[in-house]
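Anyone opening a protein record will find just a pair of labelled lines. A complete record is shown below as an example.
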Amino acid sequence: MTSDDVSLFHLAVQHYGNALEWWRIAERNGGLDPDLTLFDAPVQLDIPEPGQRGDGSGLPAS
């Protein structure tokens, strides 16, 4: 995935069916801002599987 996809909200809908799951992608990629248009060049993103998180809890980091 690249920043050409506009936002993490867009990617969350595409991959999880829910824009509110954007934090999963942000967390996996170092806490990205959801607005990917801020990047000058495309950025490679790691998209976790649904329900997958670093500690396996499926919950956002506190």
Observations:
- The first helix runs from residue 8 to 16.
- The helical segments are 8-16, 22-28.
- The radius of gyration is 11 Å.
- The mean pLDDT is 79.
